[in-house]
Specification:
Layout lengths: L10 E4 L3 E9 L2 E7 L9 H16 L14
Antiparallel strand pairs: 1-2, 2-3
Length: 74
Amino acid sequence: MLILTRKTGEKIIIGDGITISVIEVRGDQARIGVDAPKTVKVYREEVFEAIKSENQAAAASKTVLPKMDFLPVD
C-alpha cells in the first residue's frame, strides 16, 4: 500500500484519468474529491460492500418461475 501525506488543495494522480483532491481537513475527517472518467465506478467502501453482498445473495438464490400453460396459436 502506498501511503501519502497531502494538504488541502493538493492532489494525487492515478493513471491517465483519475485525480484525487484533498478538499478540506477537519479534525480526523478529510473531504476528498474524485475526478474520474464516467466508465470508472467510484464507491465508498461501505456502499461497495453492500452491493457485493446483494450480488452474492442474488447469485445464490434460486429463481422459480411459475408454470405457464400456453394455448396453441392458429
